[in-house]
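FIELD: query
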Amino acid sequence: MFQEYTEIPVQKSGWIEVVTGSMFSGKTEELIRRIKRAQIAKLKVQVFKPEIDNRYSKNEIVSHSNYSVKCQAVNKSSQLYDLALGYQVIGIDEAQFFDADIIEVCNSLANNGTRVIVAGLDMDFSGKPFGPMPQLMAIAEFVTKVHAICVETGELANFSHRLDSDDDTIFVGGQAAYEPVSRSVFKEIQKKKYNEPSSEKH
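FIELD: result
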């Protein structure tokens, strides 16, 4: 379970927190909540996102519920480290879109005493682990997995179903491009896509 900043004993090193889940599960909203609490505590805070994510704003991270916080867009992970120096708390949104160097960047910042809060998709549209997210979850002190609600069954959803036929792994989109679905629904979608026989009894 994640403990808020004020509940964690003072320590020499920083740490890494990962918030992950499917599309529309509230990842960015939770990142923003933690960032704003750090700002209220008058800590030095900076937030980053990849330049590719320009859906709502170039200089803000914005949740699907329209919560927002100012940020700096960067093109690659190596830029992020130098820009993050001197801050006590760093937020990184849409981490799945960063290159693999983001892992070492987060580790180095935490080793230097920075609290690093990372949000990103755990799986891509095909249900495979997404980019650097598995490694980030492995090295993090805290991992929070959030869930959406399946649009078909009302169950917990942890898969992101892409509504079009584009097979590019990196595809930035919102409600017009994705919908959250449960494991059972995702399984049936995959069977239809690859023309596999259904497991349903008739």
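FIELD: remark
Confidence is low (pLDDT under 50) at residues 198-202.
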